[in-house]
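User: tokens in, sequence out, please.
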């Protein structure tokens, strides 16, 4: 085989009384160029198993701390044991001189040239707030797909350079490097930004780069461990595609695996007034409130999610009024089913009266009733509705393509590893919860032959005279 296996970078270092030899394989070298030569601030390296991600993370951290005296970097993993076995101990074996420079209680390497490398773990998303305000020239987030996007957003604010470093090294650019495999709670945001390059306002496409590396890009390792690739090849098809081929469209932990844009997203149709209409609400303030509008064809049973509302940090009264405004008077909404947290008691300080969020929501034009909230049966039911139906040549539940975010949110839900039948509770599951409530409402209504309950009749009456409750 006539392939370059590795490029060895030799840095002359007085601090270690010898030349430092850092071995980069070609793909790692390509990633290094993005950081060192092009100065791209956000780089995602890897995207498949065994591509040399963690090693690349250590190499470039080591090189940059020694090359640029007085600079700082941090290497982040999800848990302390992962941090120790994947990085700290590896630093000691690969660069033995760092053992003496390592401060165990601080989990920091202090280099003789004044540079530092911190090793940190973020078990919970909120742990990231402990590091807010700390300044780093380099941030390495190994296994970024284990973290929520909030972690990335907050850490971004720590990526900055002190003026004296800029003066000393005018060509040295700060770098935020991420690595990871498909799957995990961070799958969706990593895929959006680095794989799909589907940027939001305020994100500059030129700041982000994805260097894909698979196990074949790690020939040093494969030469020593040829069975590793065979193990990846033997995985079940979806995992194999994700881990071996680096296919991000396969989502290892995805809950609704059969969701397909071309099947579940449909162009809007005109919905006749006499179809059954209902809404579902998952309330949130710090997390978004999500309301879905549903309609079912009474003859065929086809169901459509035809509108959605998703917004956070909006108080309950305003949210309710907004949802009412978005609903046309001829829609004849039977009911709005909501999570039971809306019925928790809140006490108003000034009047000392007890009331619930449901009271506020009801009084602002959005009459709600309690949804069926059993998680497992709710998810199972939603899965049934989304299942491909040969007779229909379509799934029973379809989503208007004007509600693409609903589709994306559902596609991002992952199994809870501890309770595989359940969805993992995480940021971004609000649409899923709302869809679960709405789906259960339909299934129960069908079971009961769709006899209108008293509350439905009442709501039906008042919704047909919307003026009254708009001004409530
Ligand atoms: N440049 C290199 N020089 C020597 N060994 C390397 C190099 N790059 C990777 N390796 C070795 O290949 C093996 C796998 O690399 P690494 O752990 O970095 O992969 P990974 O992509 O992080 O894997 P995983 O997906 O399991 O996290 C390790 O033993 C590592 O030391
Ligand atoms: Mg790794």
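Assistant: Sequence out:
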């Amino acid at each position: 085989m006539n392939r370059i296996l590795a490029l060895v970078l030799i840095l002359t270092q007085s601090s270690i009384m010898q030349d430092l030899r850092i071995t980069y394989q070609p793909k790692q070298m390509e990633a290094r160029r993005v950081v060192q030569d092009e100065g791209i601030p956000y780089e995602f390296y890897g995207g498949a198993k065994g591509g040399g991600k963690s090693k690349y993370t250590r190499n470039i951290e080591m090189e940059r701390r020694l090359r640029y005296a007085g600079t700082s970097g941090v290497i982040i993993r999800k848990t302390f044991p992962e941090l120790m076995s994947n990085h700290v101990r590896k630093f000691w074996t690969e660069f033995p001189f760092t053992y003496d420079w390592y401060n165990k209680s601080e989990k920091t390497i202090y280099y003789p040239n004044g540079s530092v490398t911190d090793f940190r773990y973020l078990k919970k998303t909120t742990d990231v707030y402990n590091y807010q305000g700390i300044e780093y020239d380099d941030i390495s987030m190994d296994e970024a797909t284990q973290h929520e996007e909030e972690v990335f957003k907050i850490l971004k604010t720590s990526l900055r350079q002190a003026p004296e470093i800029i003066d000393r090294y005018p060509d040295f650019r700060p770098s935020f490097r991420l690595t990871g495999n498909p799957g995990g709670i961070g799958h969706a945001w990593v895929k959006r930004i680095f794989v799909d390059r589907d940027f939001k306002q305020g994100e500059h496409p030129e700041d982000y780069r994805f260097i894909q590396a698979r196990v074949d890009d790690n020939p040093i390792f494969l030469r020593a461990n040829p069975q590793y690739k065979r193990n990846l090849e033997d995985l079940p098809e979806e995992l194999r595609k994700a881990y071996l081929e680096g296919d991000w469209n396969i989502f290892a932990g995805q809950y609704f695996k059969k969701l397909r844009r071309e099947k579940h997203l449909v162009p809007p149709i005109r919905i006749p007034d006499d179809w059954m209409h209902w809404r579902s609400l998952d309330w949130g303030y710090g997390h978004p409130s999500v309301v879905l509008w549903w309609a079912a064809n009474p003859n065929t049973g086809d169901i459509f999610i035809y509108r959605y509302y998703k917004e956070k940090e909006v108080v309950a009264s305003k949210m309710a009024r907004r949802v009412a405004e978005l609903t046309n008077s001829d829609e004849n909404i039977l009911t709005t089913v909501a999570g039971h947290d809306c019925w928790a008691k809140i006490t108003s300080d000034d009047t000392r009266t007890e009331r619930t969020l449901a009271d506020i929501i009801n009084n602002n034009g959005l009459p709600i009733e309690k949804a069926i909230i059993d998680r497992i049966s709710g998810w199972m039911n939603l899965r049934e509705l989304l299942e491909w139906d040969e007779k229909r040549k379509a799934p029973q539940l379809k989503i208007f393509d004007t509600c693409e975010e609903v589709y994306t949110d559902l596609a991002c839900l992952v199994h809870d590893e501890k309770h595989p039948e359940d969805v993992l509770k995480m940021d971004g599951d609000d649409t899923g919860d709302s869809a679960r409530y709405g789906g259960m409402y339909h299934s129960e209504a069908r079971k009961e032959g769709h006899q209108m309950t008293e509350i439905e009749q009442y709501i039906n009456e008042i919704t047909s005279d919307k003026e009254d409750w708009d001004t409530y």
